[in-house]
Prior knowledge:
By secondary structure, the chain is an all-alpha fold. It has helices at 2-17, 20-72, 80-94, 98-114, 117-129, 132-139, 145-157, 177-190, 208-219, 238-250, 257-262, 269-281, 288-294, 300-313, 319-328, 332-340. It folds into two domains: 1-130, no CATH class; 228-341, Alpha Horseshoe (Leucine-rich Repeat Variant). Helix content is 68%, strand content 0%.
Amino acid sequence: MDRVSEFLNRVLGHYEAYPLFIKIAVGMILFSITMVILVNLGIILRRTFSAINELRLTKAKNRLTDELSVSLVGIDMSHDKDVNRLSNRLSNVYLRDQQLSQLIMDQLIFFRRNFSDTVGQAVYLIFNKLELVQRSLKKLKMPSWDKKAEALREIQEMPPEEVGFEILEPYIINKNDDLRIEAQAAYIRLNKPAPFAFLHDATEPMPEWHQIILFETALNTEDLVVPQFKEFFGNPEPTVLVFCIKMIEQHHQLDAIPALIRLLDNASVKVKLQVIHALGKLDAEEAEEKFKDIFNEQELQVRVKIIEVIGKIASGEQLDFLKDQFLISQEFEIISASSCA
Length: 341
């Protein structure tokens, strides 16, 4: 101990003899080394704890999946005893920890999404008995948009029994794309009598991926009342109109043909292209005269589409028109489309 004390006194004695700028430099070097060590130690500890936590959650997920698989298969829905026993067991084991609570929510939603009939009903009952719906509703009040989006996904999979679709209204026109799509998908699930009513007020662009999600949500929702999508043609947003036209085409709504023909006067090229495509799918012979009337005013891609659709409708009434385009046009695309039509 005396030797250590003597060594430190000698080092400090030499240090005191150095000029001020050297003392400062040495101090900065020691400080930097200390900070590097602490930062790296913090990274190592954080990664270690993260790996341990990940392992814990993986084991818990596997255990929970096994337990749900065994308990839900053949569950007797005529008696509450089985459901209550499983609910109590899950509550005691998983609801005391925030991460495990989220884990059980995710797994119950997974089972609900992939199983129907008795298992789906049992999962929904358990979800409500554990009051997990309330956790989802609390997330909607959080400031973080990703937590709100997560809550909206949970709500559409496990619709609250005593909460209406009105809770979604602040989010269905939100500027955030993720929040808006989740809210609109949930709206379709919760408001089955008028699932697409939000399209009246949808002013934000509806990208292709957004349209696909809404289409799949509608396709997978039972007892959905399909509206007449021509009702939403008053919306000025072109991408919303494109979505409505696709849905008219999908549901073969022949009553919408006159409204589609009027929509050919829309300024958006994307809208006109989708209208022309839909009229072709619906074999709308009555649209051929309108096609001829607007033909010369249109962009090249619209004119090509008109010729292709006239050929697809194949009424036989427009052979002279197609022949004239083939002989007179100076544009290769028009000549090619006319020859094929």
